[in-house]
Design brief:
three-stranded antiparallel sheet; alpha+beta; 7 helices; rod-shaped; four-stranded antiparallel sheet
Length: about 300
């Protein structure tokens, strides 16, 4: 038994094509004139008092029926709204005109909004590049671009967008680490530090996934990003330790510069001559005073400099 595989490129996709419609105001006048004229003629024929002929009656009734039939082809479209037109199950085109429009009454009309829509995903628990569980959520602005693909290529395009958005966010989170670390290359993008780059990558990912449904992504941004509850406290202590180390480095660097400036000033002004041992003691005392996170208690020397 042999099977035949069909690639996605071989599938016949029904894409949107324009279908012009007529001015509804003109057609409603035509329809009302036919209905009114046929009814008035029929009433006049019956009111003569004679026996009206069958062909005459049928002709006047036919005029009324044609007028009513024409009126059934009227429909109205709001701004940023489209109507998909089909005839006995066959797609004929899409009308994007605004206002009162008219097409063949045999056409079935399905209206579809073209306005921008916002999808705010609930925070999802996923693993980042390091495998750490993180919570991530996003806000996505999208709109229908190709009405035929949205209706005829997928079963429910709104549900399709929701599911594909969640899949894209999960896939995106695995491509980046949550934060910087020694295991990452220098300058590597992370979820927390590279929000703009991550947002651009998410838009590209969503665009690829939404193309099958004729949906266009206008904007996408992360709205929630945090470590999962089970590791949040540990990672918070890690971030605090990194912040303390960074602050200490700046404090020590500044203290060394101040000590160097003090020794240089004493030497240039010849206030006092210090040997290497006294310089070392002075440097030690100054560093303690400048780098300590608590107030220091000085010990006053009432003797000489060397006693």
């Amino acid at each position: 038994m042999s099977t035949t595989s069909v690639s996605a490129s071989d599938k016949k996709l029904i894409q949107e094509r324009s279908r012009p419609s007529l001015d509804g105001y003109f057609m409603i006048i035509v329809g009302l004139l036919l209905v009114a004229g046929g009814a008035y003629s029929f009433i006049g024929l019956v009111g003569v008092g004679g026996d009206p002929s069958v062909p005459g009656v049928l002709l006047r009734l036919a005029v009324v029926v044609v007028g009513i039939f024409i009126l059934t082809g009227l429909y109205m479209l709001q701004p940023n709204e489209a109507a998909l037109l089909s005839l006995f199950g066959q797609y004929k085109g899409t009308d994007r005109s605004e206002g009162l429009r008219w097409v063949n009454p045999f056409y079935s009309k399905r209206k579809l909004s073209l306005r921008a829509r916002t999808l705010n995903t609930a925070p999802l628990k996923v693993n980042d590049k390091r495998g750490n569980p993180v919570e991530i959520g996003a806000a996505i602005i999208w709109r229908v671009q190709d009405t035929a693909l949205a209706i005829y290529n997928v079963d429910d395009f709104e549900r399709f967008v929701n599911i594909q958005a969640e899949a894209a966010i999960r896939h995106l989170a695995t491509q980046y680490a949550y934060d910087d670390g020694e295991d990452l290359a220098e300058g590597e993008t992370t979820l927390r530090a590279g929000m703009d780059v991550v947002a651009g990558a998410m838009r590209d990912e969503l665009h690829k996934r939404f193309t099958a449904a004729g949906v266009d992504v206008e904007d996408a941004k992360l709205t929630h990003l945090a470590y999962a509850a089970e590791i949040a406290q540990v990672m918070l202590r890690r971030q605090q330790a990194e912040a303390i180390i960074s602050a200490r480095k700046k404090i020590v660097h500044g203290a060394v510069s101040m000590v160097e400036a003090a020794l240089q000033g004493l030497s240039e002004r010849k206030i006092c001559e210090l040997d290497d041992e006294r310089k070392a003691a002075m440097v030690s005392n100054l560093l303690v005073v400048l780098c300590s996170d608590k107030e220091t208690q000085p010990v006053i020397n009432t003797g000489t400099l060397y006693n």
